[in-house]
Amino acid sequence: DINPDEEEEKQKLITQVLELQNTLDDLSSRVDSVKEENLKLKSENQVLGQYIENLMAASSVFQSTSPKSKKK
Q1: DSSP 3-state assignment of 3?
Q2: Residue by residue, what is the 3-state secondary structure of 4-70?
Q3: How far apart are CA 65 and CA 17, in angstroms?
Q4: Pairwise CA distance, residues 66 & 57, whole Å
Q5: Is the CB of residue 56 less than 8 Å from the CB of residue 50?
Q6: Residue 55 to residues 15, 27, 43, 49, 52: CA-CA distances in angstroms?
Q7: What are the b/e assignments for 31-42, b being 16+ CB within 10 Å?
Q8: Is 21 in contact with 29 (CB distance < 8 Å)?
Q9: pLDDT digit string, tens, across residues 24-57
Q10: What membrane topology is given (predicted)?
């Protein structure tokens, strides 16, 4: 009992829904991959930060000056 115009409109809507579902799936995958990359970068930044802190601690340039001077 559906006329051809209604059937065509129904098919268009179904096609749009399927396209939107695919777009949503793609976006969800992208969000997941960006989250994963973000976690990796945070971890790398922590390692680099610790490395820099260790270098600064080992370098005399960054040592705090002591109130006791070593003048003779």
Answers
A1: coil
A2: HHHHHHHHHHHHHHHHHHHHHHHHHHHHHHHHHHHHHHHHHHHHHHHHHHHHHHHCHHHCCCCCCCC
A3: 68
A4: 15
A5: no
A6: 59, 41, 19, 10, 5
A7: eeeeeeeeeeee
A8: no
A9: 999 999 999 999 999 999 999 999 999 999 998 8
A10: Peripheral membrane protein
With a cut of 80, say whether residue 8 has pLDDT above it: yes
pTM (2 d.p.):
0.60
At 20, list the tokens.
């939107």
Place of tokens 């003048």: 71
Question: Rounded CA gap, 36 and 45, in Å?
Answer: 14
**d(Cα 42, Cα 36) in Å, to the nearest integer?**
10
